[in-house]
Amino acid sequence: MTPRSLLRFARWYVREITGVTEYDRYLDWHRAHPHMPLLSRREYERMRIDRRDADPGARCC
Whole-prediction pTM value? Predict the structure, then answer.
């Protein structure tokens, strides 16, 4: 593995773990559904956090 590909993988991994790419996926989804209102990154993150808090699943707190 070259240093460049290692850095590319590390960047991808960190973005996946932190959830940064979720908004990118949302934008891809929105391109297929242009009739839906487009949320800003802040609005999207707020909606995502609210949904996660409404259904905590296996989290203890």
Answer: 0.67
Count of CB atoms situated within 10 Å of the CB of 26: 16
Please report the pLDDT score of residue 1 as a whole number.
81
Residue 8 tokens read as 């590319």
Which of 42, 10, 7, 36 shows the shortest CA–CA distance to 23?
42
Q: For the segment 4-19, what is each residue's pLDDT rounded down to a tens digit?
A: 999 999 999 999 998 8
DSSP state string for 7-25: HHHHHHHHHHHHTHHHHHH
Q: Give the relative orientation of helices 41-54 and 20-32 as an angle to the nearest 10 degrees.
A: 110
Of 23, 54, 52, 25, nearest to 40 by C-alpha is 23
CB 23 within 8 A of CB 45: yes
